[in-house]
Design goal:
eight-stranded mixed β-sheet; elongated; alpha+beta; two-stranded antiparallel ribbon; 23 helices
Length: 693
């Protein structure tokens, strides 16, 4: 094992002590080299850390495809396990049914399915007749479609102690439940005790620790508890009663609808009009209302028709209540529109319909408020509840509900964004989140002109929230000048997406963010001016000592990247070969001024242009005044030549080439430096010759 591997193993040990390790490391270092050696050691550890991170990423990427394939295989296996479980459950139920079958149930394999069904029904009836006394009279009154769905022997339990009382026999027909109690003796084990229709019957699944096989039958006004033989029987009876009740309610609903339609048709025919079908345009219904019902008050026949119409509306109320209970909102809205088409004078009926209309509106509103309403976007909402509320003259209310739901979801997503050490990353994520949401909503409602004013107001509000978050989390936490400027540019770039779809909300950015941005820019510029004044106060007009050759080369490369050539100012003597014949404040000013002009150039198209001009003018006026008041020397001359001939033209070109802000300042207040501007052209020619060589 190499020494490097031993060091790595020691760092990964569980008993590793950082303070002790640093002390041991410092003992082997000569005095005066501690800082440099620690920096080198820290750089080596950082390199190892980066290498390990890259290795981990490579391992993750290499195994990512295997992970996806394994997940797909697991999903496939889970689906097959579920299918196998369902198949085994069906096989178990089939085996239990076969075990309960009697020898009389066996039929030849060649009988048809219809004959088999008839034989099973006949066998069920025979079994019932053999076990229960007094049931024959009931069977004689059955309708043609009535049949036995389930029949089982169970235990009746005491409602308080849940102890067994005696066995009972339950028989479930298509619309009736029979209960048989045991007989004291004789041919039959049970006798018919009571019959119950589904109108007064409900079943409850009792879930208790010691009573997992118990069902509760609510038989108005009483209730009984029964214990089933096993879980399969309990499930069959619970599902069987619920299914039979739903089937019966559907049949009753169809009968009521047919009755109401027939009455409505008879009323329309009595007035000489043709009855319009449900779902037809509202104008046809209004035509019947205006032409048919408008003449009812002028004759006795009209009074009779009004009474029939009142009775029809009363029946319609019952039908509407049933439709609402089953959440058939389309039918409910159609019935409410039919009521509105009738000029009903009965206040009680109108009040009842108004109450039911409020119930429908509330149910549709809850459907819009649900989280799943956002999964399909506004298109999914528009397809059902919004259209229904629109038919009820509540389109704006529905859109407002949907937009509030979108706002809640958007705020929840915004709270998940974290403000890291990179504030621009937060600005990009937040602006992208909000702007994409605004674009999506605006695109969804572009074909709804009546609601677009409300949508526009919502878009403006959400953009204001975005600007508030950016102001609170970025602008007001003392960021740098570059962060402030680039935040502004990111927001305006995102607003351009809104302008493309016709939503020019850039004025909101100027209105809400510009004051805070102006304050932040002023604070940053004040810090820059104070720093520059501090360096000016420490100015000694000596060459800038770079100390080492690497520092000198690094600075020359930095100046070259900025577009400045300062090689000519490097000292040519051997003793001072690391010196630059430019003052330290001049070198610092070159960095600051170019960086400031580059940042403020991004704001030149906004209404902060005057503020940016004042910053640039104040910065240059401050330093030019310092140059003008300094004593003349070789360093002063080189500094003036560097600042006036190179830095000033570069700043002016970077900030705004179309204006001559700095040239005007030079020619109006600092004419003594114009000679260096004349040397600029000579310097450019020399640079071109050097480049050609």
């Amino acid at each position: 094992m190499t020494s490097e591997e031993q060091d790595d193993a020691y760092l990964l040990a569980s008993n590793f002590n950082a303070a002790e390790h640093v002390n041991q490391f410092l003992k082997t270092i000569r005095s005066g080299e501690e800082g440099r050696r620690l920096q080198n050691y820290r750089a080596s550890l950082q390199t190892k850390n980066n290498t390990a991170s890259e290795a981990i990423k490579d391992v993750v990427f290499d195994h990512y495809r295997q992970f996806i394939e394994t997940s797909k295989e697991i999903s496939h296996l889970e689906r097959e396990i579920y299918q196998l479980s369902s198949l085994l459950s069906e096989q178990k139920n089939l085996i239990e049914n076969l075990m309960e079958m009697n020898g009389q149930e066996k039929r030849s394999s060649g009988s048809t399915s219809t004959q088999s069904g008839g034989n099973i029904a006949h066998h069920s009836t025979q079994t019932l007749l053999q076990k229960m006394d007094g049931v024959a009279s009931f069977l004689n009154t059955l309708k043609e479609n009535d049949r036995i769905l389930l029949q089982n022997e169970m235990l009746l339990l005491d409602s308080e102690t849940m102890e067994p009382v005696h066995p009972i026999y339950l028989v479930l027909f298509t619309d009736t439940l029979l209960i048989g109690h045991p007989t004291s003796g004789g041919k039959y084990r049970f006798h018919l005790s009571s019959t119950h229709s589904f109108d007064n019957l409900a079943v409850v699944n009792v879930k208790r620790a010691m009573s997992d096989l118990v069902l509760q039958l609510l038989i108005f006004p009483e209730q009984i508890y029964i214990k089933c033989e096993n879980g399969r029987v309990k499930k069959e009876w619970f599902d069987g009663i619920e299914h039979a009740k739903r089937t019966k309610e559907q049949e009753n609903s169809l009968v009521r609808q047919a009755t109401i339609r027939a009455k409505r048709k008879s009323i329309a025919k009595g007035n000489g009009q043709q009855f319009p079908s449900r779902g037809r345009a509202h104008d046809n219904i209004s035509m019947i209302s205006e032409e048919g019902y408008g003449q009812q008050d002028k004759s006795p026949e009209g009074n009779v028709t009004a009474l029939e119409d009142t009775q029809w509306l009363k029946d319609l109320i019952n039908e509407l209540q049933d439709v609402i209970s089953h959440r058939h909102m389309e039918q409910a809205v159609e019935m409410i529109l039919e009521w509105k088409s009738c000029d009903c004078k009965d206040p009680a009926i109108n009040a009842k319909f108004a109450s039911l209309e409020q119930t429908v509106v509330k149910m549709l509103s809850e459907e819009i408020r649900r989280p799943r309403a956002l999964h399909g976007g506004a298109k999914a909402v528009l397809s059902r509840p919004l259209n229904l509320l629109k038919n009820l003259d509540r389109e704006t209310y529905a859109v407002d509900l949907y937009l509030k739901r979108r706002s809640s979801a958007l705020r929840a997503a915004a709270r998940e964004l974290t403000v890291s050490e990179e504030p621009l990353s937060y600005v990009r994520q937040a602006s992208k989140l909000f702007v994409n949401e605004i674009v999506e909503v605006a695109d969804e409602f572009k074909n709804q002109p009546k609601c677009y004013c409300l949508v526009l107001q919502w878009c403006s509000g959400e953009l204001s929230l975005l600007l508030s978050l950016v102001r609170r989390n970025v602008i007001e936490v003392a960021p740098t000048m570059a962060v402030c400027v680039r935040t502004w540019c990111i927001l305006l770039t995102q607003c351009d997406k809104l302008t493309v779809i016709g939503l020019d909300l850039s004025f909101e950015v100027h209105r809400l963010l510009a004051p805070a941005l102006k304050t932040a820019l002023t604070t940053n510029f004040t810090n820059i001016i104070e720093s520059m004044r501090l360096r000016i106060s420490e100015e000694r007009w000596k060459p800038y000592n770079m100390e080492t050759e690497s520092n000198l080369n690094r600075y020359l490369e930095e100046m070259s990247d900025m577009g400045l050539a300062i090689d000519w100012a490097v000292s040519s003597t051997t003793s001072s070969r690391f010196y630059i014949n430019v003052s330290q404040s001049g070198c610092h000013f070159a960095r600051v001024s170019v960086s400031l002009c580059k940042d403020l150039a991004l704001l030149k198209s906004s209404h902060l242009r005057n503020l940016c001009d004042s910053f640039v003018r104040m910065l240059w006026e401050e330093y030019l005044s310092h140059l003008a008041s300094a004593p003349t020397s070789n360093i002063h001359t080189c500094t003036c030549q560097f600042i006036i001939a190179q830095v000033l033209p570069l700043c002016e070109e970077t900030y705004d080439p179309s204006t001559s802000l700095l040239n005007d300042l030079l020619s109006s207040k600092f004419t003594q430096f114009m000679q260096y501007r004349n040397e600029e052209s000579q310097f450019e020619e020399e640079q071109e010759e050097i480049a050609n060589v």
